[in-house]
Design goal:
The chain is α+β, with helices and mostly antiparallel strands and 443 residues long. The chain has two domains: 149 residues, Tetratricopeptide repeat domain (Serine Threonine Protein Phosphatase 5, Tetratricopeptide repeat, Alpha Horseshoe); 282 residues, monomeric porin ompg (Porin). A 14-stranded antiparallel beta barrel has the order 1-4-5-6-7-8-9-10-11-12-13-14-15-16. It has a two-stranded antiparallel sheet with strand order 2-3. Helix 2 packs antiparallel against helix 3, helix 3 packs antiparallel against helix 4 and helix 4 packs antiparallel against helix 5. The radius of gyration is 27 Å and the shape is elongated.
C-alpha cells in the first residue's frame, strides 16, 4: 500500500513532467492532472527502462491500492520481476504470494515464485510451487518446460537462515502424569510435584542457518546448524537442542541424495542432558508432476549425561509421500519407525508413527491440519514396575498463517495442538494442550 510522502517524493518528477506538458498546451487556463492506471504503468515501465528504478518502484507501489485486481496484480508482478533482478528476493516473494492470494490461478506468477524460492535456497518450497502449478493445469508445451526445470532444480543461494518465534501457552510443559502417586511392585509411591503435570507460558524458538558450497556440477557440500528452544519462567523445564551437520548433496538425474554427519546437543533445565554423534541420509524422488517421495534414515550414538543406562544407539527411518491436489491445496502421508537400543533393556524401545498432514490456502490465509498415531513398546519390564511399557499416542494440530497481517516479510501464525499418550506405566500417561502465537516468513 502506498505511503503518502515517500510516494509523493518518488512520483514528483513524473507529476512535474505531466504538469509542464499540460501548462505548455494551455498556459492561460487552470488545469487539473488526472493519471490513469495504464498511464502510471507506462510511466513506471519507461522509468525502469531508463534505469530510474526508485521512481519505477514508487509508481508500481502507488498502484497497489487500485480498485482493479488486474491492475494491482500487474503492478506487483512487474515490481517483483524488477526486485528479483536486484536480488531483493524476500520482497519479490512477498509480492508474488500477494498476487496468488487474490488470483490463485495465475500460473505464470506461481512459476515465477518457484524460481524466486529456488534463488532463496528454499528448494522444498520451490518444488511445492511447481507441483501446485502442475495440479492447476498447464499447457502441454509449458508443462514439458516445467518438467525440465524441476529436474534441474537445486537451491541456488549459498548462505541462508530462517527463524520462527512464538509465545506458547502449554497445559503440560513436562509431558508428565496428573497422578500424585505411582504404582510399583512394592506399593504406591508419592510423586514429587516436579514429576507431575506442570502448565506454563513459554517462548518457542526454531531456527536454522546453512551454507551450500559447490564441489562439482552435480555435487554440493552442505553445512547446516539447527536449533530449537522452549523457555519457561520455571527454568528447570527449559528444553534446548542444537545440531550441526555437514556432508555432500548429490544430484542423480531428477533424484537427490544427501549424506550428513555431525552432532546433537541437548540441555534440560539448564543442565547438559545428552550429546550424540549423528549420521543421516535423505533421498528425494519425484513421482510424476504433482507428487514426490522423500526418505530419511539416521543413526545417533547417544551419551546421556543424566544416567548412563540411557546410553546407546538410536536408529530412525521415515518415508513421506507428498501430493498437490490443486494449486491451493495438498497433503502428505508419513510413516516412520525408530529403535532406541539402550544399555538398560527396560528403556530400550521400538516405535512407529503414521502422520497425515493437509494444507489449504484460503485467500491470504494458509490453514494446516495434521493427525498422527504412534505405538511404542519396550524390550523388557523395568524392575520397579509390574508391566512392560507399551504406549499408544494420538496427536492433532490445526494452524494458520495470516499473510494479510504481515509486517515486512514476516506474517503472524497461530497453532493449536493436542497430544494424548496412553501407557501401561502410569508415569508416561499424559494429556497435553498447547497453543502457539508467533511469526514466520510470509511466503
Amino acid at each position: 500500500m502506498m505511503r503518502c510522502w515517500p510516494c509523493l517524493a518518488g512520483l514528483l518528477p513524473l507529476l512535474l513532467a505531466l504538469a509542464s506538458a499540460a501548462l505548455a498546451a494551455a498556459p492561460d487556463s487552470p488545469q487539473s492532472i488526472a493519471v490513469t492506471a495504464d498511464q502510471l504503468l507506462a510511466m513506471a515501465g519507461r522509468a525502469q527502462t531508463a534505469g530510474d528504478l526508485a521512481v519505477a518502484e514508487t509508481a508500481y507501489r502507488a498502484l497497489f491500492a487500485d480498485p482493479s485486481v488486474e491492475t494491482r496484480s500487474e503492478a506487483r508482478f512487474r515490481l517483483a520481476l524488477m526486485l528479483s533482478g536486484q536480488r531483493r528476493l524476500n520482497e519479490a516473494a512477498v509480492l508474488l504470494r500477494a498476487i496468488l492470494d487474490e488470483q490463485p490461478k495465475a500460473q505464470r506468477v506461481r512459476l515465477e515464485l518457484a524460481r524466486v524460492l529456488d534463488m532463496l535456497g528454499d528448494e522444498a518450497g520451490a518444488r511445492r510451487a511447481l507441483r501446485e502449478a502442475q495440479a492447476g493445469g498447464l499447457p502441454p508445451d509449458v508443462a514439458r518446460l516445467v518438467d525440465r526445470y524441476s529436474a534441474a532444480l537445486r537451491a541456488q543461494k549459498p548462505l541462508g537462515a530462517s527463524l520462527d518465534l512464538a509465545v506458547a501457552p502449554d497445559s503440560n510443559i513436562n509431558r508428565a502424569t496428573r497422578s500424585n502417586t505411582l504404582g510399583t511392585v512394592i506399593g504406591d509411591f508419592e510423586l514429587d510435584p516436579d514429576a507431575q503435570q506442570q502448565s506454563g507460558i513459554g517462548l518457542a524458538f526454531r531456527g536454522q542457518a546453512y551454507g551450500r558450497f559447490p564441489i562439482s556440477k552435480g555435487t554440493n557440500l552442505f553445512a547446516r546448524m539447527s536449533g530449537s528452544a522452549n523457555l519457561y519462567r520455571a527454568s528447570n523445564f527449559n528444553d534446548v537442542a542444537i545440531s550441526a551437520t555437514i556432508g555432500p548433496e548429490l544430484r542423480l538425474g531428477a533424484d537427490r541424495l544427501s549424506l550428513e554427519t555431525g552432532g546433537l546437543w541437548r540441555w534440560f533445565g539448564g543442565r547438559a542432558f545428552s550429546r550424540a554423534a549423528t549420521l543421516e541420509f535423505n533421498y528425494f524422488h519425484p513421482l510424476g508432476r504433482k507428487a514426490q517421495l522423500r526418505g530419511m534414515g539416521s543413526i545417533a550414538f547417544t551419551d546421556n549425561r543424566f544416567n548412563a543406562i540411557w546410553d546407546g544407539q538410536v536408529y530412525a527411518a521415515s518415508l513421506s509421500y507428498e501430493r498437490a491436489v490443486s494449486n491451493r491445496a495438498g497433503f502428505s502421508v508419513t510413516l516412520s519407525a525408530d529403535r532406541q537400543s539402550l544399555m538398560d533393556p527396560g528403556y530400550a524401545l521400538w516405535g512407529g508413527q503414521a502422520t497425515l498432514l493437509g494444507y489449504r490456502e484460503i485467500g491470504p490465509v494458509t490453514v494446516i491440519a495434521s493427525l498422527g498415531f504412534g505405538r511404542l513398546v519396550a524390550d523388557e519390564r523395568i524392575a520397579l514396575f509390574p508391566r512392560r511399557r507399551s504406549d499408544q499416542s494420538y496427536r492433532a494440530s490445526l494452524g494458520a498463517t495470516f499473510r494479510n497481517l504481515r509486517v515486512g516479510s514476516f506474517a503472524p501464525f497461530a497453532r493449536l495442538s493436542y497430544e494424548k499418550n496412553d501407557s501401561t506405566i502410569e508415569l508416561y500417561a499424559f494429556n497435553r494442550l498447547r497453543s502457539e502465537f508467533g511469526i514466520t516468513r510470509a511466503f
